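Minutes, project huddle
Topic: does the predicted pose make sense with succinic acid bound?
PN asked that the exact inputs be recorded in the minutes so nobody has to dig through chat later. Recorded below.
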Amino acid sequence: MLTLHFSEFSLEHFLAHYWQQKPVVIRQGFHHFADLISPDELAGLACEEAVESRLVYKKDQQWQAEVGPFESYEHLGEQDWTLIVQAVNHWSPSVAQLVEPFSFIPKWRLDDVMISYSTPGGGVGPHIDLYDVFICQGSGRRRWRVGDQGEHRQFAAHAALLHTDPFEPIIDVELLPGDILYIPPGFPHDGISLEESMSFSVGFRSKSARDMLSGLADYLIDNELGNALISDPQRPLHRHHGQINGSDFAMIKAQLQAVLDQDEVIADFAGSFLSRTKCQLDLQVLEEPYAEDELVDALIQQPLTRIGGLRCFYVDQTVAQGVCYIDGERYQFGAGCVEAVLALCDQESLSASALQAGLQQPAFISALTRWVNAGFWYFAD
Ligand code: SIN
Ligand code: CO
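Predicted holo structure (tokens), as shared on screen:
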């Protein structure tokens, strides 16, 4: 298991002073850190249709970006190029392990683990991200420069590369294996590989109100909610035909607010919306599905492992009824299953004892069997 070391400050200090506020270098955040996947394996993944990848390099001083899947890397030479593979935690159980050390931030904020392999001189150019990222240096050395927040012009250096103008660095460091660079959204940065190197970036996302409201509208439609029309009996005499006056505006806002004030509706929407994955999952589908009693017997012998990238949440408002959200779907198992629901969502590995309360309930056993047969959890050996 990977352990994160904050030698110069505590996690509480990091959250109070750096998270979402300013970038920081965490020297030797991981002791004896070794690549969690080899460059060859990464290059192989980027050849697969289901995996999102990009190659970034310069040709005649012009930035170039190609989108995978790739067939070969031979044309690229020995330097000045980078291969980026998104959501590798979905495809590699060893890379998925890199998520747990960052569990001091809730999983609903996690985006993915992106890995880049760079040859000497390679990099994606100066840019600004909308996400928080912990860039964990694997093999090799990379020089990172990070500028301050502020007005930075952004422009398309290539149709697929949004760059920013050169910036004055507030951090200028060489990262060595095991070092971590944390960068909050909005800080321009630029990493250039000093030799062949691997970077493992654990990224966190949040949603805009626009995305949330658009998701909420879909949720209301799917669940036939929010149908009540504005009703205005006892309306006072209206004098200006074209006007939406102050009290009418208040009534329109109140109609929308009434939807947001229904905690159960918003909890349910948030749980299902945030538990959907952005990238494809590597489902461990079984050829021979388990019968329910076989599954319980197998679970007594060994724990189940959750596939990387599967998102499982509960919400404080509804968890007392045993409600949880797995990959966008809502499940309700009742008050007797709360402990099992907490284990499902909080733990990457599930033992029979952690699920004990759920294993007394036929509905829970049946759902667990369906999840395992669909490939959401698997027996590692
Ligand atoms: C990289 O790892 O090369 C790019 C990561 C980033 O700056 O977002
Ligand atoms: Co970046």
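Observations noted during the meeting:
- The chain is about 25% helix and 25% strand.
- The longest helix spans residues 246-260.
No decisions taken; revisit at the next huddle.
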